[in-house]
Amino acid sequence: MLNLNIARTLLFLGCVVCSNGRSLQANNKNLLSTRSLFDEKNKEHWKIQAQWTLRTKLETPLNKKVAKNVILFLGDGMSIPTLAATRVYIGRKFGHTGEELKLSFESFPYTGLAKTYCVDHNVADSACSGTAYLSGIKGNSGTLGLSGAVKRGDCKGQKDDANTVTGLMDWAQKAGKSTGIVTTTRVTHASPAAAYAHSADRKWEADADLPRQGLRCEDIASQLVGGRVGSSIDVIFGGGRKNFYSRNDKDSSGNFGYRNDGRNLIREWLLNKQSHGVAPTYIENKRELLNLDKRKHKTVLGLFASDHMPYNLEAGISDPSLSEMTQKAIEILSQNQNGYMLFVEGGRIDTAHHETKARKALDETAELAKAVEAALRMVDPENTLIVVTSDHSHTMSYSGYSKRGSDILGLANAKYNASDNLPYSTLSYANGPGYKPPTDFRRHNLMLDNMNSLNYTFPSMVPIPRETHGGEDVAVFAKGPWAHLFTGNYEQSFIPHAIAYAACIGPGLTKCNL
Ligand SMILES: *[C@@H]1O[C@H](CO)[C@@H](O)[C@H](O)[C@H]1NC(C)=O
Ligand SMILES: *[C@@H]1O[C@H](CO)[C@@H](O)[C@H](O)[C@H]1NC(C)=O
Ligand SMILES: [Zn+2]
């Protein structure tokens, strides 16, 4: 029993630290002093761990309270192999093997699997899947906030109100909650845009992106500033400044805007908020973000980059991290007595995978895990539902058979050279720019490559410029009120219905109207 208690404490610490390097190192001493219990060769290790997991499950009561607050975290392109590989990436950074670690959200009590296909395509893109997990209906690939009746590029269909769908942001606003969006991509990119926009093409981020001929539709940036749902969002943090001002103007960093219509949407956003009697704040860098006083700034637009925000591994001193943006958003939004709905996207996992830059993809996944951890420290788990999921998978696979704790970004055990007597990497892609042409009819020898480079493109079987998404299910992790609704296997479009039930918002069944 004594042993069990020690193990409990340590395992508990082991869970909380997950992605937090400092506490992981601080605990090293504890871990060493009880080495025997952590020795995987000791059968007691596994028994105690399993008994502890069992006991935790038996002791976890169902939380059937109303979710006052909801935070939906989205790892764009965060497939299940990405999660497993990221554990090893983090573990090795801090001198552990890594396979046994848990990402912050992997210790959530309830998990499920979501099916991601779109109405017209077998493999989802971020637009149709965003519409599914934010609005609760599935649409066609490349379309945002519109039903499957609208084909990609059908501006006429976009203009017909019968095809428009709204979801979590709208329902939360109608219930008097504050709403926020945080992303590392352009705030007009597909995932965040699915929260507020209706667009027959996800590419119509600014007016300059619209076709020159035929019907004109409202671009996504314009909908964020002027749309019913977009204009009511209280906190917007991310990149994509160029879509908000004219191609004839420069921002403070000397970047030209991208708009043809001469509008300055940042100014329009400020004026619009002022006309509604709120004092809005516009910010552009990390210092301004960290200095925000939540008591004075209740409505904030932060556009921290001209395009997407940089990868964490390439970020400069003026670029805020996903955790910093998430923390500030929670600080500001949690002042509303009616609660809040916050959408947080780790958007660059996906872009890294498309480039087959696995190192960056795993690092961005670690950043999302840190942001979830930062949120967990700030909220009351009794009244805050946290859901962590992904929009779609990718084609990266995690191959055997290396020794435990091997470099996840390196070669598989040399004992297992392929049939052509050349080594292969643990991580590889079914397609993408990492394709390496053969030399003298022999497969490329990976030992000639610098796989430690940030920009190394991992081997891909088929050469295409952008690696594709994958079609298998994505994981859903949930904690807080009604988190148990997220168990099982379901359509991705079920997610907002379950959130709405827990939070007593939206037109469907809720805990309050049942
Ligand atoms: C695997 O392939 C590399 C590159 O050709 C070679 O140097 C190495 O000796 C091979 N390993 C085995 C066990 O054959
Ligand atoms: C990686 O690529 C980016 C551009 O995609 C470049 O800015 C950066 O300098 C490269 N880093 C290294 C270490 O090569
Ligand atoms: Zn993508």
What does this structure look like?
The structure is a single chain. With 514 residues, this protein is an alpha/beta fold. It has helices at residues 2-17, 21-26, 28-33, 35-38, 43-59, 80-93, 126-135, 155-159, 168-174, 190-193, 220-226, 265-275, 286-291, 322-333, 348-354, 358-378, 495-503; strands at 69-75, 110-115, 178-186, 235-239, 280-283, 299-303, 340-346, 384-390, 393-394, 396-398, 427-432, 460-463, 469-470, 474-479, 488-491. It contains 17 helices and 15 strands. Helix content is 32%, strand content 15%. The protein has 2 domains: 2-59, no CATH class; 69-395 and 468-513, Alkaline Phosphatase, subunit A, CATH 3.40.720. The protein has a 10-stranded mixed sheet. It has a 3-stranded mixed sheet with strand order 10-11-12. GO terms for molecular function: alkaline phosphatase activity; metal ion binding. It is found in: Cell membrane. Residues 1-21 form the signal peptide. Mg(2+) binds at residues 76, 189, 191, 345. It is a lipid-anchor; GPI-anchor.
